[in-house]
Amino acid sequence: MIKEICPVTETIKLIGKKWNLLILKNLSEESMSFNELKRNLNGISSKTLSESLAYLSKEGLIVRNVKVNSPIRVEYSLTKKANGLKPVLEDMGKWGKKLL
């Protein structure tokens, strides 16, 4: 018997961790540097943010852009693949407001 793959389960594997979802939510609004993300994500450690960014990048959900200015600036943004999450994140926000 072949076990069917559940798309919701696969999505949760990618974005289900608390910080991953919040990182994606922040990046859905604009590109941000590491420090901007850290300021916006109250309570995240630098280590956890680094690990989450590396994981999301490896999974093809975010891209690390190096801007060669003086000083060098690194920004993170969503990939085309992750842009499809924007309506989901917006709906989650609307749903959450109703709970408040």
Task: Describe this structure as you would to a colleague.
By secondary structure, the protein is of the alpha+beta class. The protein is 59% helix and 14% strand. A three-stranded antiparallel β-sheet has the order 1-3-2. The protein is globular, with a radius of gyration of 15 Å. The N and C termini lie far apart (45 Å). The model has no long low-confidence stretch (mean pLDDT 92).
Question: What are the key terms here?
Answer:
6 helices; 3-stranded antiparallel beta sheet; 100 residues; 14% strand; alpha+beta
Question: Could you write a compact summary of the structure shown?
Answer:
The protein is an alpha+beta fold and 100 residues long. It is built from six helices and three strands. Strand 2 and strand 3 form a beta hairpin.
- Terminus-to-terminus distance: 45 Å
Strand order of the largest sheet: 1-3-2
Which percent range describes the beta-strand content? Answer: 5-15%
The level of helicity is 55-70%
Total strands: 3
Task: Map the helices and strands.
Elements: H1 7-15, H2 18-29, E1 32-33, H3 34-40, H4 46-58, E2 62-67, E3 73-78, H5 80-83, H6 86-99
Antiparallel strand pairs: 1-3, 2-3
